[in-house]
């Protein structure tokens, strides 16, 4: 699929009133997730305004036909992996059918019985994550961080040739809202000869996009760059919480380990590749002098349409701010075009050694930062390694995160002539370490 | 459980004749795995000599009672995760019951109907791996490799304080016997300014032990070192196939990625903690001058019993050797006591940040090498980075692995007064890259 259809029509409105003008979930979005109400079994749903279309109950009642019904049935279980394992066509059919039903007032009574209030629902992970991989494609983040440690030579020689990434921990990925317990670990003070063990003193966020994988590839069989785009089911916001002091001590020579694997928070809705179609834009041209990607990473169509017009934002609200009714404070905002590689390039590279990607696998983009202070994706960058505190509206300041801090990520797809869509909540509140 | 019982009695023999004197699977072993015959559903089994006790059919027929029956039922599905999720007691009960039944000639006719020929069976992974983590606890390997790249300072400052590890790729772990397709990837020749993409020219093995996790810990709640030992369901052999040229180019700054995630081979049988009980030995004292482990990693009982008396061996048989009937050639043999940390220390460290470990998770120990040439766990070490070829019995030589080479790992637990037990096959044959 390439291009837009009636589901993207900006004139289309829903009989679900809360959807019209909704910041995240107007009828043009229709993201996929897994929800339950207390005492109920988790199952697939589609967000529409402040409500959720229960795909399991809709499938049972025969609300859909043909391929749309196939997709709804695949979304009826506690994880969307069976839906992600389908070819794109049934997911597109489900989207078109749901968009028609939710905009056709004549069908309202028949459909409304399958809607639940989002405020009554708990959100779960949308899929059982087989493997989680985190990339490092935010070039300004790599620069900003590199500059702190290697001022003369911030980017390593491989950066502009290889999409750098590492394997993450699937078991510690959680949906928005789960508390972030401050991790303990080994750290070594700059002037100490030996490490000590205790709670991290440099707890940080990392603003990332996540990619949910649809159909993958067979073990041993790479995916071409031309195929890779179709393996992206959709995107999510991802906060790769990081303990910088643990990271600095442990990461040589095998990379980040426990500094990252205590928790990763994702927004619980898969904003589908279909919903994002109007927001596809050209990958920005590389700066003069940068190497061209090797042929296995190069595809004209991907360069022309492989980036996304997304605005990504980080906000903090301390406990004192919450108690005083002070709204979350924006730490930064910036565009997703600050990624050096397209999502399709990340997928192709990942499978280039024959590594098997599977439906429900999750990729992180790497931290997305602006080159300047307006949209840093981590406090490490914004505070220059903890040296320049951020002052908050109520007079508090932060170098790294403190207990009680709530950290929000927001994301919004924006393009003239189209209705903006968003990702929903991606929040975590810091709790003290285990006693 | 600590100590030995009647299941370890060296005088105990089985009415399964092939078990008595079997190098790997005498009645004192009884490892757990998942098998199927062509057209059948995979289910749990227990190896006994050249046969497999079908735990699913035994459970259905009511061969076991009480906790042993609970365990056999949990082993009846296509993966042993439900069995691993149980407390140790039912697994111990199953072991004791199976040992009694397989040694009691009076029960033979009743039990024999549940035995299948191992030669008729395909072995699968014993569990669905939630997450796979690879450590770097083989201190001589770290030294040998460090010496190649940093002769003056082979071990990094953190090595003797932190159990170094990284997250691996669960989707690419396969049971013994699956072919190893030569991966392609980016490499940069030493004198080149830019990388190229193509099949690895430096394909290597890594001899490791794997740990299968039983009950884990809840996300956010660390495991004490005193608890950690009981979370080890058993051990396996693990070959962490590695593409050294990809690794050298990609690994900075986030660690190994595609150089490792094309395939990891394990022996398909879980040699249980219970079976290994007689082979527990003291962790060797650290060399004079080495730091003591931090308190969260220190437990007297673990130091006294946390290591294993295992001999680990690597063998190669090239295609030409196979055609000429030349037996596999030993590349090296050495003890598992060349690990700097106990398995319990690895488990405790892994959970120390609150990372959730789950039943069926797999940990690799890191490559286990001797300080000298007798038991190098990789060709990188044995050939000094590819500079000193190994000469094989038929006159061929190898620096790294070539297409058609079969690489075998073997492992054997040996202690005077006890019957030796082994791990079974852990083999992979190298195939050319995807055309």
TrEMBL record, chains A, B:
<keyword id="KW-0828">Tyrosine catabolism</keyword>
<keyword id="KW-0106">Calcium</keyword>
<keyword id="KW-0479">Metal-binding</keyword>
<feature type="region of interest" description="Disordered">
    <location>
        <begin position="174"/>
        <end position="197"/>
    </location>
</feature>
<dbReference type="InterPro" id="IPR011234">
    <property type="entry name" value="Fumarylacetoacetase-like_C"/>
</dbReference>
<dbReference type="Pfam" id="PF01557">
    <property type="entry name" value="FAA_hydrolase"/>
</dbReference>
<dbReference type="InterPro" id="IPR036663">
    <property type="entry name" value="Fumarylacetoacetase_C_sf"/>
</dbReference>
<feature type="domain" description="Fumarylacetoacetase-like C-terminal">
    <location>
        <begin position="133"/>
        <end position="411"/>
    </location>
</feature>
<keyword id="KW-0585">Phenylalanine catabolism</keyword>
<dbReference type="InterPro" id="IPR005959">
    <property type="entry name" value="Fumarylacetoacetase"/>
</dbReference>
<protein>
    <recommendedName>
        <fullName>fumarylacetoacetase</fullName>
        <ecNumber>3.7.1.2</ecNumber>
    </recommendedName>
</protein>
<dbReference type="GO" id="GO:0004334">
    <property type="term" value="F:fumarylacetoacetase activity"/>
</dbReference>
<dbReference type="InterPro" id="IPR015377">
    <property type="entry name" value="Fumarylacetoacetase_N"/>
</dbReference>
<keyword id="KW-0460">Magnesium</keyword>
<dbReference type="Pfam" id="PF09298">
    <property type="entry name" value="FAA_hydrolase_N"/>
</dbReference>
<keyword id="KW-0378">Hydrolase</keyword>
<dbReference type="InterPro" id="IPR036462">
    <property type="entry name" value="Fumarylacetoacetase_N_sf"/>
</dbReference>
<feature type="domain" description="Fumarylacetoacetase N-terminal">
    <location>
        <begin position="28"/>
        <end position="126"/>
    </location>
</feature>
<comment type="pathway">
    <text>Amino-acid degradation; L-phenylalanine degradation; acetoacetate and fumarate from L-phenylalanine: step 6/6.</text>
</comment>
């Amino acid at each position: 699929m390439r291009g837009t259809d009636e589901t993207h029509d900006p004139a289309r409105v829903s009989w679900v009133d809360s959807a019209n003008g909704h910041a995240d979930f107007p009828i043009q979005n229709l993201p996929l997730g897994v929800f339950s109400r207390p005492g109920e079994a988790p199952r697939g749903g589609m967000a529409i305004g402040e409500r959720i279309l229960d795909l399991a109950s809709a499938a049972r009642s025969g609300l859909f036909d043909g391929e749309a019904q196939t997709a709804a049935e695949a979304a009826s279980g506690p994880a969307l992996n069976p839906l992600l394992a389908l070819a794109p066509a049934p997911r597109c059919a489900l989207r078109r059918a749901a968009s028609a039903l939710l905009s056709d007032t004549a069908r309202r009574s028949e459909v409304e019985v399958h809607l639940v209030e989002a405020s009554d629902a708990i959100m779960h992970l949308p899929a059982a994550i087989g493997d989680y991989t985190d990339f490092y494609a935010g070039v300004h983040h790599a620069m900003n961080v590199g500059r702190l440690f290697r001022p003369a030579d911030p980017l390593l020689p491989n950066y502009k040739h290889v999409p750098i990434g590492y394997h993450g921990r699937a078991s510690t990925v959680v949906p928005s809202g789960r508390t972030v317990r401050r991790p303990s670990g080994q750290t070594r003070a700059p002037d100490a000869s030996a490490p000590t063990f205790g709670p991290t003193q440099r707890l940080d966020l990392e603003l990332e996009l996540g990619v949910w994988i649809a159909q993958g590839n067979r073990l041993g069989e790479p995916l071409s760059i031309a195929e890779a785009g179709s393996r992206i089911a959709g995107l999510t916001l991802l906060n790769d919480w990081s303990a910088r002091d643990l990271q600095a001590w442990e990461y040589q020579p095998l990379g980040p380990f426990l500094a990252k694997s205590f928790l990763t928070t994702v927004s619980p809705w898969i904003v589908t590749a279909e919903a994002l179609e109007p927001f596809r834009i050209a990958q920005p041209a590389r700066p003069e002098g940068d190497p061209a990607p090797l042929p296995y990473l190069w595809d004209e169509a991907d360069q022309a349409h492989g980036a996304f017009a997304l605005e990504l934002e980080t906000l903090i609200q301390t406990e004192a701010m919450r108690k005083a009714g002070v709204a979350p404070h924006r730490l930064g905002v910036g565009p997703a075009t600050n990624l050096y590689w397209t999502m399709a390039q990340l997928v192709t590279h990942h499978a280039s050694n024959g590594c098997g990607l599977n439906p429900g696998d999750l990729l992180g983009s790497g931290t997305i930062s602006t080159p300047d202070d307006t949209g840093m994706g981590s406090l490490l960058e914004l505070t220059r390694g903890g040296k320049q505190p951020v002052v908050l509206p109520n007079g508090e300041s932060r170098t790294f995160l403190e207990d009680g801090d709530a950290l929000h990520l927001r994301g919004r797809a924006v393009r003239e002539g189209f209705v903006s869509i968003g990702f929903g909540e991606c929040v975590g509140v810091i709790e003290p370490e285990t006693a």
